[in-house]
Fold this protein.
Amino acid sequence: MESAPAVFAGTVFALFGAGLVVWTGARAAHREPVADGARPVASAVLAGAVGVGCLALAAWCFGQV
């Protein structure tokens, strides 16, 4: 029973991280801004880094199971 929170958190992190990486990649591929009012390269790098960080957290959570 104690692994259920780790599985839930890992799933949430994995879905959010994967969605953010895919969305950022699609926006960057179409040369569209990732964030309104921000520098395009900086916002794409920051969003990509957060997405990869969430995927790393998901892997850590699944490793706790």
Q: What stands out?
A: The chain has a mean pLDDT of 93. Helices lie at 4-29, 40-63. Residues 4 and 65 are 8 Å apart (CA to CA).
